[in-house]
Amino acid sequence: PPAMLRDEDTEADFQRFLRRVDDVTNLLQGLKSPDSAVQEKAIAETEKRLREQGASREEEEEEESRTTVNRTLINTSVRAFPSEIKAGLNGFLAALEKDAKERAQRRRRNEQLANALKEQGNEAFRAGDFALAIQRYSEGLQKLRDKQELYTNRAQAYLKLHEYEKAISDCEWALKCNKKCLKAYFLMGKAHLALQHFTESRQCYEKMLQIDPQKENLFKECVNEARLQEKRLREEQRAERELQAGSVAALSIQELLHSISSPGHHIPYYTGAIRLLAGALNSCTGQTFFRTNNGFSILRNEAVRGAFCAGSKSPAEVELCVSLLLLWQAACAGNEENQRLLLAQPEVGAQLPELLSRGTAQIQRETLALISLYSEHEGGRRLLGRQDLSRWLQILMAFVKCTDARADSAMNILSDLAGEERFQTQCRATLSTGVLPLFTQLLVCARQVQQAALARAVAVLGSLCADVGLRAQLAQSRECWQACLELLDGCPDASPGYQQCVFAVLGLMMNLLLESNGTIQDFAVPISGRCLALLSHQDGRIVTRATGVLSRVLPASPSAVEEVVKGGVVKKMLKFLKAGGQLTSSYAIKTLAICTKSSTRAQEELLKGDKRFQVLLRLLQSGDELTVGNAAFCLSQCLLLPGAASSLLGSSVVQLLLRQAGGDALRSSVQHNSAIALGRLCVAEPRHIHQLRKLNGLAILNSSMKYVHSS
Fold first, then answer.
1. Are 533 and 542 in contact (CB under 8 A)?
2. CA–CA separation, 89 and 367 (whole Å)
3. How many angstroms separate the Cα of 676 from the Cα of each of 319, 626, 646, 669?
4. Is 606 exposed, middle or buried (0-12, 13-18, 19+ CB in 10 A)?
5. pTM for this structure?
6. Is 634 exposed, middle or buried (0-12, 13-18, 19+ CB in 10 A)?
7. Is-contact 274 323, C-beta < 8 A?
8. Looking at domain 107-231, what is its CATH homologous superfamily?
9. Residue with the larger pLDDT of the pair 44 and 205
10. What confidence category does residue 665 fall into, taking pLDDT thresholds of 50, 70 and 90?
11. Do residues 483 and 461 touch, judged by C-beta distance below 8 A?
12. Which of 75, 163, 334, 481 is within CB 3.0–4.6 Å of 158 for a Cys-Cys bond?
């Protein structure tokens, strides 16, 4: 490949070039300066440059022609006249302009060539020909040596060839071109890490975060990788010292691994050796010995691999499989490097879902225990996320049918994974075909399954609704809504476990109602009917969630509003507003706002049940703006009724509405609702204008009237 621009002479030449550019720029700025002293200094410097330029050209022409040419020399002892300076200056500037144009043209040509070579290098990199990629990037740098991308791309290729020092050098050059180049710091950190320069690696990653705080997640991953590698190195150095000191545990682990790797034995022989080995891995050093002696290559033994991967296992193969799972638990407990190496074995990742779905109860228990070692911490969940998890939601949810500890273990894993974006993404593929039929079946048979586990499974689906794609699929499913309603039907006089399921289903319904579709409109009436019935439940948590579901489902259907108003929802909501907590109150006032918007009966019942609007006036003083906005909306709707505005004479209503309409509220919707209520109040009962005048609020009233007319 072409010579690299890396030696001291080349760097010095590069720096001289940059200094010359800076000098010419400063000179031009000085000549244009309004400060006469600065301009005088720049003229003197220009004269000096002209003399040097003239002398240089004479030498060049003499060298080329070897002939004597008569010239007019500059008399350095006599200062040039202004006209001469001007003429020389114009010539100098013209020469500078011509030179700049030529340089720009050359740079454009070179940039085109460099870009073409960069693309050729990228193609070679994608094809895995890293040596050719390096050659192309180097050729590009000969055309344009200050192109940052060529340095970072070449550094990336050097990393692939394990030439870490060269990668670091290229990253340093990239940073000379652009001191805020994130890719350069990232690749340099990787190169330092490969050389076990842990401090330097972390410093590179910290620089990344300083340049772009949005890269915090990448920073955490990189720093965590450096931490794990440093920890692994310390562990292996300690294990090596113990081995050199004649550690009995190390020798025992080596002998057992040798026994397991030797072919030709019966399955019970391997099972016994694996059990003994699992017992020997009772310390971090033991785990390290296992790793450094190729313990994770145990599946290379055909008999062991065959028993582990067999679809239908004999009793002996079941015992061996259980022993393997216990061994891996011992090797991976609290050891992230071992966890990484285990899942790097292709057979392990492929067999885990098979063992969960088709294994014996004992195999399932130990498989769940092994997976739990990963799911309970962030690094382990990241490792699991690299596997194919598309079937895991369905497989793990099926454990709800189990009556032993497997159900809890499976739900723990699901709860851990539910917040992982990669898990959510993979679940979309099988949700409608695999998960939904199972889920609806579990809801319908809620009395026949482990109800605590079912409640947790429902809660997991509720958490997965954070993914918009999953939520949309669930909200469109008629079977899902029907199953939820059937479960709610069985709530009266149900067991505590069943009530947990009801609570979880209401939470799921609230999440699904963030969507708006035809299915929800079709089910709005039965959903609101079930929730209205639950408002009398003795469990306050269920009442709160039932109110929340009402507040979200009623906007989908005027018929649903009409039915719940007939069923006495206004009286129930007023009761909650008088005695309920903050969350219940926020749902209740929103429900009243929806009902009073389209139902005169709801307005009349609110006026009758809330004498002088004491409840609404109290809500107008709430610290929660959404509650204030909904209370103002309810009040504005009720002020359409005869006598409603008069009942508020002598109250603080004008002051409260004026404060919100005048700008105290941050949300524009709250200001609008308060303005509409204020305008309707004064139109319906002009005597409120006297109080408004005392509070200097007439200007706000005038501006409020446009909202009244538009409403």
1. no
2. 85
3. 76, 16, 17, 11
4. buried
5. 0.74
6. buried
7. yes
8. Tetratricopeptide repeat domain (1.25.40.10)
9. 205
10. low
11. no
12. 163
Backbone angles phi, psi at 7, to 5 degrees: -80, 170
Q: Centre a 10 Å sphere on the Cβ of residue 242 and count the other Cβ atoms it contains.
A: 16
User: 249-387 in CATH: which number?
Assistant: 1.25.10.10
Name the amino acid, one letter, at 601: R
Mean local confidence (pLDDT), 622-648: 93
| Helix H or strand E encompassing 2 | none
Q: What is the dihedral of CA 614, 620, 623, 624, to 10 degrees?
A: 110
Distance CA 42, CA 677 (A): 72
- Report which residue type is found at 376: E
Dig out the tokens for 617 from the structure.
């006036």
Structure tokens at 102: 């030529």
| Proportion of the chain above pLDDT 70, given as a percent | 86
Sign of the CA dihedral 170, 171, 172, 176? positive
CA angle 384, 386, 388 (to 5 degrees): 85
Work out the end-to-end distance of the chain between its first and last CA atoms, rounded to an integer number of angstroms. Answer: 76
Let me know: does 90 contact 121? Beta carbons within 8 Å: no
For residues 634 and 577, give the distance between their C-alpha atoms in angstroms, rounded to a whole number: 13
N residues, the chain: 711
pLDDT for 71 beyond 60: no
CA distance 453 to 495: 14
| pLDDT > 90 in the chain, percent | 65
Between 211 and 100, where is the model more confident? 211
State the greatest distance between any 2 C-alpha atoms of the chain, in Å, as a whole number: 119
**Nearest in space to 488 (alpha carbons), one of 476, 497, 499:** 499
Asked if residue 619 has pLDDT above 50, the reply is yes
Mean pLDDT of the region 228-238: 90
pLDDT band for position 603 (cuts 50, 70, 90) = very high
Say how far residue 37 (Cα) sits from the centre of its chain.
Answer: 58
Residue with structure tokens 């790797």?
261
Q: Which among 282, 4, 334 is positioned nearest to 142, based on CA atoms?
A: 4
- Domain edges within the chain: 107-231, 249-387
Distance CA 504, CA 446 (A): 12
- The per-residue b/e assignment along 157-183, b for 16 or more CB within 10 angstroms, e otherwise, is bbbeeebbebbbbbbebbbbbeeebbb
State residue 52's pLDDT score: 67
| pLDDT over 60 (residue 547) | yes
Q: DSSP string covering 176-204, please? A: HH-TT-HHHHHHHHHHHHHTT-HHHHHHH
Query: What is the chain's mean pLDDT, rounded?
Result: 87
Collapsed DSSP state (helix, strand, coil) of residue 465: coil
DSSP letter, residue 113: H
Q: How far apart are CA 593 and CA 630, in angstroms?
A: 6
Per the rule left: phi > 0, alpha: psi between -120 and 50, beta: everything else, 119 is: alpha
Provide the pLDDT for residue 701.
Answer: 66
What is d(CA 461, CA 502) in angstroms, rounded to the nearest whole number?
14
State the residue for tokens 């306050």: 540
